[in-house]
Design a protein that fits this description.
The complex is a heterodimer of chains A (53) and B (132). Chain A has 53 residues and is α+β, with helices and mostly antiparallel strands. Chain A is built from two helices and three strands. Chain A has a two-stranded antiparallel sheet. In chain A, a hairpin with a 5-residue loop joins strand 1 and strand 2. Chain A starts with 17 loop residues before the first helix and ends in a 5-residue tail after the last strand. In chain B, strand 1, helix 2 and strand 2 form a beta-alpha-beta unit. Chain B is globular, with a radius of gyration of 15 Å. Classes of the chains: A alpha+beta (53), B alpha+beta (132). The interface between A and B is large, with 47 and 73 residues.
Protein backbone atom coordinates (compact mmCIF):
# COMPACT_ATOMS: atom_id res chain seq x y z
CA UNK A 1 0.00 0.00 0.00
CA UNK A 2 1.32 3.44 -1.00
CA UNK A 3 4.43 1.67 -2.27
CA UNK A 4 5.66 1.60 1.31
CA UNK A 5 8.73 -0.38 2.22
CA UNK A 6 8.05 -3.73 3.83
CA UNK A 7 11.12 -3.53 6.02
CA UNK A 8 12.53 -0.50 7.76
CA UNK A 9 15.23 1.27 5.76
CA UNK A 10 18.00 3.51 7.00
CA UNK A 11 18.97 6.84 5.53
CA UNK A 12 22.35 6.84 3.87
CA UNK A 13 23.55 10.34 3.06
CA UNK A 14 27.00 10.38 1.44
CA UNK A 15 29.97 12.38 2.77
CA UNK A 16 30.51 14.10 -0.54
CA UNK A 17 28.15 15.15 -3.26
CA UNK A 18 30.01 13.38 -6.07
CA UNK A 19 27.07 11.07 -6.82
CA UNK A 20 24.74 14.05 -7.01
CA UNK A 21 26.92 16.36 -9.08
CA UNK A 22 26.24 14.94 -12.52
CA UNK A 23 22.50 14.50 -12.11
CA UNK A 24 20.65 16.85 -14.46
CA UNK A 25 17.09 17.87 -13.60
CA UNK A 26 14.66 20.28 -15.25
CA UNK A 27 13.50 23.29 -13.28
CA UNK A 28 9.98 24.67 -13.19
CA UNK A 29 10.53 26.30 -16.58
CA UNK A 30 11.96 23.19 -18.21
CA UNK A 31 15.55 24.45 -18.12
CA UNK A 32 18.04 21.67 -17.43
CA UNK A 33 20.11 22.17 -14.29
CA UNK A 34 23.21 20.10 -13.46
CA UNK A 35 23.20 19.77 -9.70
CA UNK A 36 26.98 20.18 -9.41
CA UNK A 37 26.66 23.64 -10.93
CA UNK A 38 24.56 24.71 -7.94
CA UNK A 39 27.55 24.59 -5.57
CA UNK A 40 30.29 25.49 -8.05
CA UNK A 41 30.50 29.11 -6.94
CA UNK A 42 29.10 28.98 -3.43
CA UNK A 43 27.27 26.83 -0.91
CA UNK A 44 23.77 25.57 -1.54
CA UNK A 45 21.04 24.16 0.68
CA UNK A 46 19.12 21.44 -1.14
CA UNK A 47 15.75 20.35 0.19
CA UNK A 48 14.13 17.17 -1.11
CA UNK A 49 10.39 17.43 -0.72
CA UNK A 50 8.49 14.33 0.33
CA UNK A 51 5.83 14.78 -2.33
CA UNK A 52 3.61 17.44 -3.78
CA UNK A 53 0.11 17.82 -2.52
CA UNK B 1 9.79 30.73 9.41
CA UNK B 2 8.37 28.73 6.53
CA UNK B 3 10.73 27.50 3.88
CA UNK B 4 9.19 29.45 1.05
CA UNK B 5 9.68 32.67 2.99
CA UNK B 6 13.29 31.91 3.82
CA UNK B 7 15.00 32.82 0.55
CA UNK B 8 16.28 36.20 1.66
CA UNK B 9 17.70 34.85 4.91
CA UNK B 10 19.59 32.11 3.10
CA UNK B 11 20.96 34.57 0.59
CA UNK B 12 22.03 36.86 3.43
CA UNK B 13 23.88 33.88 4.92
CA UNK B 14 25.64 33.40 1.59
CA UNK B 15 23.87 30.31 0.30
CA UNK B 16 21.29 29.45 -2.30
CA UNK B 17 18.20 27.49 -1.36
CA UNK B 18 16.87 25.05 -3.97
CA UNK B 19 13.93 22.65 -3.68
CA UNK B 20 13.73 19.26 -5.40
CA UNK B 21 10.45 17.43 -5.84
CA UNK B 22 9.37 14.18 -7.42
CA UNK B 23 7.18 15.59 -10.17
CA UNK B 24 7.16 17.10 -13.64
CA UNK B 25 8.34 20.64 -14.49
CA UNK B 26 4.71 21.56 -15.16
CA UNK B 27 3.71 20.46 -11.68
CA UNK B 28 6.73 22.27 -10.25
CA UNK B 29 5.55 25.49 -11.86
CA UNK B 30 2.05 24.91 -10.51
CA UNK B 31 3.43 24.23 -7.05
CA UNK B 32 5.39 27.51 -7.07
CA UNK B 33 2.36 29.49 -8.15
CA UNK B 34 -0.01 27.79 -5.74
CA UNK B 35 2.27 28.09 -2.73
CA UNK B 36 3.67 31.52 -3.67
CA UNK B 37 7.18 30.10 -3.56
CA UNK B 38 9.95 32.29 -4.92
CA UNK B 39 12.54 29.52 -5.00
CA UNK B 40 13.88 27.30 -7.76
CA UNK B 41 12.07 23.96 -7.86
CA UNK B 42 13.77 21.09 -9.69
CA UNK B 43 11.70 18.21 -11.02
CA UNK B 44 12.96 14.69 -10.32
CA UNK B 45 10.24 12.31 -11.46
CA UNK B 46 12.61 9.33 -11.49
CA UNK B 47 13.87 10.14 -7.96
CA UNK B 48 17.51 9.71 -9.00
CA UNK B 49 18.68 12.50 -6.72
CA UNK B 50 16.68 11.09 -3.79
CA UNK B 51 18.58 7.81 -4.10
CA UNK B 52 21.93 9.58 -4.49
CA UNK B 53 21.18 11.68 -1.40
CA UNK B 54 20.48 8.58 0.67
CA UNK B 55 16.78 9.29 1.19
CA UNK B 56 14.67 6.34 2.24
CA UNK B 57 11.27 4.89 1.39
CA UNK B 58 9.08 4.69 4.48
CA UNK B 59 7.24 1.74 5.92
CA UNK B 60 3.51 2.13 6.65
CA UNK B 61 4.34 2.78 10.29
CA UNK B 62 6.75 5.53 9.28
CA UNK B 63 4.02 7.11 7.14
CA UNK B 64 0.95 6.74 9.32
CA UNK B 65 2.12 5.81 12.81
CA UNK B 66 0.85 7.67 15.90
CA UNK B 67 3.92 9.91 16.13
CA UNK B 68 3.60 10.91 12.50
CA UNK B 69 -0.13 11.59 12.73
CA UNK B 70 0.25 13.66 15.90
CA UNK B 71 2.97 15.81 14.37
CA UNK B 72 0.98 16.17 11.16
CA UNK B 73 -2.01 17.46 13.12
CA UNK B 74 0.20 19.94 14.94
CA UNK B 75 1.68 21.19 11.67
CA UNK B 76 -1.78 21.57 10.16
CA UNK B 77 -2.86 23.64 13.13
CA UNK B 78 0.30 25.76 13.18
CA UNK B 79 0.61 26.55 9.49
CA UNK B 80 -3.01 25.97 8.45
CA UNK B 81 -1.90 23.69 5.65
CA UNK B 82 -3.94 20.71 4.57
CA UNK B 83 -2.56 17.91 2.48
CA UNK B 84 -4.10 17.69 -0.97
CA UNK B 85 -3.80 15.12 -3.72
CA UNK B 86 -0.44 13.40 -3.59
CA UNK B 87 1.78 13.62 -6.64
CA UNK B 88 4.81 11.35 -6.60
CA UNK B 89 5.73 8.24 -4.67
CA UNK B 90 3.73 8.58 -1.43
CA UNK B 91 6.22 6.67 0.68
CA UNK B 92 9.34 8.45 -0.58
CA UNK B 93 10.83 10.54 2.20
CA UNK B 94 12.91 13.65 1.64
CA UNK B 95 15.57 15.53 3.50
CA UNK B 96 17.98 18.42 3.33
CA UNK B 97 21.70 18.98 2.77
CA UNK B 98 24.14 21.85 2.79
CA UNK B 99 26.83 21.40 0.16
CA UNK B 100 29.97 23.53 0.03
CA UNK B 101 31.89 24.50 -3.10
CA UNK B 102 34.00 21.46 -3.97
CA UNK B 103 31.16 19.11 -3.11
CA UNK B 104 31.65 18.50 0.60
CA UNK B 105 28.36 17.84 2.36
CA UNK B 106 28.75 19.92 5.50
CA UNK B 107 25.37 19.01 7.00
CA UNK B 108 22.51 16.70 6.19
CA UNK B 109 19.22 15.63 7.66
CA UNK B 110 17.45 12.90 5.73
CA UNK B 111 14.00 12.12 7.06
CA UNK B 112 13.62 8.98 9.18
CA UNK B 113 9.81 9.09 9.01
CA UNK B 114 7.15 11.33 7.49
CA UNK B 115 7.20 13.66 10.49
CA UNK B 116 10.98 13.98 10.67
CA UNK B 117 11.77 17.14 8.75
CA UNK B 118 14.50 19.68 9.38
CA UNK B 119 13.08 23.11 10.03
CA UNK B 120 14.14 26.08 7.92
CA UNK B 121 15.82 27.46 11.04
CA UNK B 122 17.90 24.28 11.42
CA UNK B 123 18.97 24.37 7.78
CA UNK B 124 19.84 28.05 8.02
CA UNK B 125 21.88 27.42 11.15
CA UNK B 126 23.75 24.67 9.30
CA UNK B 127 24.53 27.14 6.52
CA UNK B 128 25.82 29.68 9.02
CA UNK B 129 27.85 27.07 10.92
CA UNK B 130 29.50 26.01 7.70
CA UNK B 131 30.78 29.55 7.34
CA UNK B 132 28.84 30.25 4.19
Amino acid sequence: MFGAATTRQTTNPPASADALADIVLPDQDGNEVRLGDLWRDGPVALVWLRHYG
Amino acid sequence: MQLHRAREEFEAAGARLVLIGQLSPRHAAHFRRNEHIDLPVLADEKRDSYRAAGAKVATMGELLGPKVMAKGAATTAKYRVVQGRTIGHPAQLGGAMVIAPGGEITWSHMSDDASDNATPEEILEAVRSAGA
